[in-house]
Design a protein that fits this description.
It is a single chain. The protein is of the alpha+beta class. It has four helices and two strands.
């Protein structure tokens, strides 16, 4: 069993920065829950990808659903991803 400590950032147009910050504040619980679900359901292969491409894509799709705007979030970045053995 592993625990994952990670940071998730998003790239948005500069003029949308305040909007996304507000949405993140309003929906932080839902965002955290959905990302946790993605991680719990992720395959070992996905979590071991060098670039975390599949994980970033799933998080991007989920965040776009939450903010209800396909174009607001351009990319998802995961600058820190630390797996830790839990046993």
């Amino acid at each position: 069993m592993y625990l994952y400590d990670l940071d998730v950032s998003v790239v948005v147009p500069l003029e949308q920065k305040e909007r996304i910050e507000g949405l993140v504040k309003q929906r932080s619980g839902e965002i955290g829950d959905r990302i946790a679900r993605i991680l719990r359901g992720a395959s070992d292969r996905m979590l071991k990808e060098d670039d975390l491409r599949a994980l970033r894509q799933q998080v991007l799709e989920t965040l776009r659903e939450i903010v209800e705007d396909e174009n607001l979030i351009q990319r998802v970045l995961i600058p820190r991803f630390v797996p830790m053995r839990a046993d």
